[in-house]
């Protein structure tokens, strides 16, 4: 038997079958290995695409949430300013005093024009009744106790500020959002609410202008899962036609109930049925939710293209392998695979195939459409011909390290078109290896994301910049101020914050229209910007309010203040140049408040309050002026607040007492006394009436205090009635106009007389001329009813106010009091002497008693007696003192 091997054609049949089986097995194993490799690549790519979509949607949702939050910061600023006004002593008096609704409405209308989001401003009483509104559609007296924002404060006594979800208004027949802030007195008592009613249509209008990428959706909803707006709209409506539409989606509900700040999920839209990858982001501190969706079909479009490409490659390889086994069958499969591969290659993604040395072998039509390069221009060249120059060598080194180590890389890259235009693209690079593990090719796919980047930039602009002027908004200004404050202390450099408010801006809106008002704000922003350096921050806070942030001004506070003052004067000067609006020349002025900062103990809120306080002082000082924040001013306000808090407790702590000043006749016999209020503070001692009486007038404490004075004086009359030496004495009691105008004043006086048993004819009420400037007929009627019961009236400080003979002769008066300012000067000043003589003569002709107060010398009394005055009050006859100090029977 020969040891030579048989040729293949002479092998036994069983040998042929065994070789075929081995070849087929190897072929199938190779196909299986290739299939597993491709499956791994596809699964990894599928995961990466979803992760990229997830990250993109999350970043987009975060930006939109920032924009929503920044929008509400405008209402928060308006509300804070409003609350600061109403919690000042003057503002509290304005809120507490009935009949001031017109003044309240005027003040609210003045603040309501600050931003398009603000639909209305209102003041709600502690009982839940609308006191005043900037919108005439909401009448005073409207009961709001059933609305969610009032109920929230009822249920939580510690709640200071609250933004409501959507709620339905029966008055306007529309959905609204309310931003409410508690109003309280110095001792923390609930005084009511300041409420900003917001117009949610603003969100839809903004989204309508926003560029959207294919398959993207953006929705804003409240925490009750009611839509505020949604793009793209569903049905036949627009972005705001969905306002108030309830959404039923269990996963969203579960997310809201979880309390988490953000999440991502994949589900079918309950609105249009499309499957999307959603990123949900709560708006911090607000009852709103931002939902950004990426349609899975669009998100995975590139992945499906890669799938078909790899299927095509797989089929090509399978066909080639099969051709080795069966030439004819292999040829058919090759043709089919090539057709599939060609179809997959022509995708909406740009595609580049290079060899292992990164020389371009093939590009598709989308590559040409995006880059502008034809295939013939790039074959054999390196893809670096597209480089924009914006990325350094480190960036590309890390990119290729990822490709070598992980097999692929994807991310955002800036490239350059054939025209020279630089554009952003989302790029994926994958390495291709043969069966031996050798690198053979690179496959790159990319898409033009210019539109997406523009949309993201637009949202960023909305979140941090004012849409009308293009200036930084309040949020960006606060971010920069916070950074400047942190840097100022280590560097030792002072900075300055300037608040600028235009004077009488509302008149421009009312006379020329809101369009002219917008033009004015744009021109003002441009003017102010020309004065400042590029390193300074000019921001629009809302309405006609601007802020200027200056930093690194120096270490000497005196010189820094001078620099800030010089810049402020430049800003005021820039405003004074006439502006051309709607064919008219308009000149406008401004007021500026300035505060310096460097101390690391000063908080951001304190700096803002200081600038606001300085602006308030500038406004009070008149138009076209500036004021610096003065710590002494702040200390004075704090002292005033402490005094007011103590004053509120004084009545309950029985700290008030009455002193009495004698009133005498020409023979210096005691005929009566004037009851004068005194406050014995446990720590301060005796507080001057000039210090606490005006404060009591401002916050309406004068009403209960005046009631106490009246009762104490009546009890003194009763004590004197039993002694013949004092039974005929009269007690004069000063009555505040606020107390006099109170509903039921007559009934309270008569009830006090009845309760104490005091004789009405011995009680004299002293009123001032200011009482009769307005509502003269009502005042006369009140006096007439009391006079019918025996109570007498004296007109105090006659001649110092709005004296008018026309009302004097019609009032049921008994006595005129000559003011001490005339008495003091009557011997030295001919005008004062003439006025006193005229008052005495007038009293005689009107058959009224006359009494001179402030008599301090014998010569003054002698002059008064000589001219017909026979009743006196002053230090010559006795200073005010306790009842025990009165000398009876003199």
How would you summarize the topology of this molecule?
Layout: H1 13-86, H2 89-96, H3 101-112, E1 118-125, E2 130-133, H4 148-155, E3 161-163, E4 167-169, E5 174-184, E6 190-198, H5 201-209, E7 216-222, E8 227-231, H6 250-258, E9 262-268, E10 275-282, E11 288-295, H7 296-299, H8 301-325, H9 327-345, E12 350-355, E13 360-363, H10 365-371, H11 375-378, H12 393-406, E14 408-416, E15 422-433, E16 439-448, H13 450-464, H14 474-491, E17 495-502, H15 505-512, H16 514-531, E18 537-542, E19 545-550, H17 557-576, E20 579-581, E21 584-586, E22 590-597, H18 604-621, E23 625-628, H19 631-650, E24 656-665, E25 670-681, E26 685-687, H20 689-698, H21 702-721, E27 730-734, H22 737-741, H23 745-756, E28 763-768, H24 776-788, E29 792-798, H25 805-808, E30 815-818, H26 820-825, H27 830-845, E31 849-853, H28 858-866, E32 871-873
Parallel strand pairs: 22-23, 25-27, 27-28, 28-29, 29-30, 30-31, 31-32
Antiparallel strand pairs: 1-2, 1-6, 3-5, 4-5, 5-6, 7-8, 7-11, 9-10, 10-11, 12-13, 12-16, 14-15, 15-16, 17-19, 17-22, 18-19, 20-21, 24-25, 24-32, 25-26
Domain PAC: 409-461
Domain PAS: 351-382
Organism: Halomonas gemina
